[in-house]
Write a structure and sequence with these properties.
614 residues; alpha/beta; Signal recognition particle alu RNA binding heterodimer, srp9/1; Rossmann fold; Helicase, Ruva Protein, domain 3; 4 domains; 5-stranded mixed sheet; 20 helices; 16 strands; 49% helix; 12% strand; disordered C terminus
Length: 614
């Protein structure tokens, strides 16, 4: 801080000495000065003068200062100055001050810049450039306190964590019985299910310090920084009970960033990350659970974690934080709508039924999108219409009404979506409900969409239901073929999803009589270094041929089934397509009314292809 005061002061003094006086001097030409000098005995206009090398400076009678540059070889000038000016001196050049300015001032400026950028400007989290080894863990304050009242939809996980809270509040209750609380708790679950929020709630309920850090904050560009930060993190946690009189919770989010299986690299790569993981394993063995320190980790990729990290004594307890069911979604929606002004027609239970598979983060985004839509329409509250529109916005993307589509393409999209809608009503009425059909483009690729939602949360799917799903997916392509006698690329995504269903039926679910109750290949496993560098086929080439034949057979049977149903209801298909082309968006009741559902040819059980092994 002293340097910032000294440097401007020196600069100001030098400015006063050398710059400002020169700025006040009159610059005279040599001819004018020479004439003044000749007449000075009679006029007395020049009071004093001094000669420094080839420059004459002096003071005039009116009190002003002057300066003049003289010729180098003027030998008569000095005698003339001595005779005609009473106060005249010849001074040596100010070499010292000039050298001082040229040598010292740049050094001082460099020191000032170095001080500013290194010690003041470069800060990393809580430390500066020389504090890379310090942990970046953030200590949550009272303003950020979260309790179980702010968490919903994960009742089982809350029950599992209740023991942790009781131990932090009253450790003697467990210690007198010889019990030890788990040192570490690993929260597993898909993204957005509330793992971080749950860890904060545990700290809030127990009223203990909460240190949070991301797994990616350990490893930096310098070797050894990750291990040093791990040690510093646990050192902070050990001091917390001494300073606060209570325990502490250390939370590592996305722990798979630092805890992946070791020896994963090729040719010795990722050594720094492995060194950090080794330090983490050592520290987890070193701290005492009786001190009241609980380590909580969160990840959505438990399959890539190192086995040493998951053994008893480190992460003793693994808690699954899954997507909420219907009751959980309703409770989550109530929490997220606390500060949202809802209209009287807002039905959160209906909204929860319409959002199966949504995580807590998805529901929070849904409520926020509904509030933004209401504000866009200048409404005073959030109605059910905005809430339902936000479902489509989250699932399919925002509407793109500005996208210009030709009349022919719009007719094709209308027929395509009408085929999906009719088959959804006829084949999937017992499991899914048609919600809306639209030909307004959404997102980056969809020119239209047919939205159908499950009637309830389901965890098992029958073989016939999978066949129905594939048939509905192929309905758009079939409708194009029946009406226009040609097909387009609009069914690209439908074919991709339908093929995926058929492959899983054959390779994962054992729904093929030719292949039996076996599974083939690893269809949904992602490739990670250290786990599956290359995916091996666990079946022969002849079996691969049979798999391809079975997948093709399932898709072909469903295609022919969709074609038969839509041929029997071709007039209804055209009627629905024309109305959809006119209105662009139709809900379920409008579709049923247009096609006259009670008079539509129903698909009898005999028309169904039945099990996939026929």
């Amino acid at each position: 801080m002293i340097a910032f005061l000294v440097i401007p002061l020196i600069f100001f003094v030098l400015l006063q000495i050398f710059v400002l006086p020169k700025m006040e001097m009159k610059q005279l030409s040599y001819s004018v000065f020479y004439e003044m000098l000749i007449n000075n005995p009679s006029t007395g206009e020049i009071e004093s003068a001094e000669l420094v090398e080839t420059t004459v400076r002096g003071k005039l009678k009116d009190g002003s200062y002057f300066q003049v540059n003289t010729p180098v070889n003027d030998l008569e000038l000095i005698p003339l100055l001595r005779r005609n000016v009473k106060s005249f001196n010849v001074n040596p050049p100010q070499v010292f001050w000039r050298n001082l300015i040229y040598s010292v001032l740049p050094v001082l400026l460099l020191i000032g810049f170095f001080w500013f950028f290194v010690y003041r400007g470069v800060q990393q989290g809580g430390g500066k450039i020389f504090s890379f080894g310090k942990s970046r863990a953030k200590l949550s304050g009272d303003r950020e306190r979260v309790t179980f009242k702010d968490v919903a939809g994960v009742d089982e996980a809350k029950e599992e964590l209740q023991e942790i809270i009781e131990f932090l509040k009253d450790p003697g209750k467990f210690q007198k019985l010889g019990g030890k609380i788990p040192k570490g708790v690993l929260l597993l679950g898909p993204p957005g299910t509330g793992k971080t929020l749950l860890a904060k709630a545990v700290a809030g309920e127990a009223d203990v310090p909460f240190y949070s850090i991301s797994g990616s904050d350990f490893v930096e560009m310098f070797v050894g920084v990750g291990a040093a930060r791990v040690r510093d993190l646990f050192e902070q946690g050990k001091h917390a009970p001494k300073t606060s009189g209570r325990g502490a919770i250390i939370f590592i989010d996305e722990i798979d960033a630092v805890g992946r299986q070791r020896f994963a690299g090729i040719g010795g790569g990722h050594d720094e990350r492995e060194q950090t993981l080794n330090a983490l394993l050592v520290e987890m063995d070193g701290f005492d659970s009786h001190a009241g320190i609980i380590l909580i980790g969160a990840t959505n990729r438990p399959d890539v974690l190192d086995p040493a990290l998951l053994r008893p004594g480190r992460f003793d307890r693994q808690i699954v934080v899954d997507r909420p069911d219907m009751k959980g979604r309703e409770a989550i929606l109530k929490i997220h709508t606390r500060n949202v002004k809802l209209a009287k027609d807002a039905d959160l239970l209906k909204l929860a039924r319409s959002t199966p598979g949504f995580s807590g983060a998805d529901l929070a985004n849904l409520v926020n999108e509904a509030a933004l839509l209401s504000a866009r329409y200048n409404k005073n509250d959030v109605a059910q219409a905005e809430l339902e529109s936000s479902i489509e916005r989250v699932m399919a993307g925002p509407e793109r009404k500005s996208r210009v589509i030709s009349k022919d393409e719009k007719e094709i999209v209308s027929v395509h979506e009408s085929g999906h809608a009719i088959l959804t009503l006829l084949l999937m009425g017992s499991t899914d409900q048609l919600h809306k059909v639209s030909i307004i483009p959404r997102g980056h690729a969809a020119l239209g969409y047919t939205l159908h939602l499950p009637l309830e949360d389901r965890y098992l799917v029958r073989e016939k239901e999978l066949m129905d799903k594939i048939t509905v997916l192929l309905g758009g392509r079939v409708a194009e073929e029946l009406v226009f006698k040609q097909i387009t690329t609009g069914a690209h995504n439908d074919l991709e999803v339908a093929t995926g269903f058929a492959q899983r039926m054959v390779c994962e679910y054992g729904m093929s009589k030719r292949l039996g109750h076996l599974t083939f290949g690893k269809q949904d496993r992602e490739v990670f270094l250290g786990r599956d560098l290359m995916r091996e086929k666990d079946y022969s080439e002849s079996t691969a041929i049979v798999i391809d034949e079975e997948v093709r057979r399932i898709v072909d049977e469903c295609y022919q089934r969709a074609k038969k149903v839509l041929q029997e209801n071709l007039d209804k298909l055209k009627k629905l397509s024309d109305r959809l082309l006119e209105k662009e968006v139709l809900d379920s009741e409008e579709v049923k009314q247009i096609i006259g559902l009670n008079h539509v040819s129903k698909v009898e059980q005999a028309n169904s292809p039945g099990p996939a092994n026929q």
